[in-house]
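User: For my dataset I need records formatted as: sequence, then structure tokens, nothing else. Please produce one.
Assistant:
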Amino acid sequence: MHPINSPTQIGKILVSRRKALGISQATLAAKLAMSQQRLSELETQSGSLTVERLTAWLTLLNLDLGIGERSSKAKAYSKVEW
């Protein structure tokens, strides 16, 4: 499980998983009904991802999204990017 404290981290995880599976941006973009250029933008600027699009993306990459209480040691994310 990867803790996520900022939108940027989501994009990095999605890129890493896509590459690990050997899926090109063009192939994934086609499955998500978007252009390769838009997929590239979302990978680097994940803050504008909708929950609907994120869940579709996670499904295609065989990933789950979980929400839990933050541990007392975790750093709070203070900048609002959403």
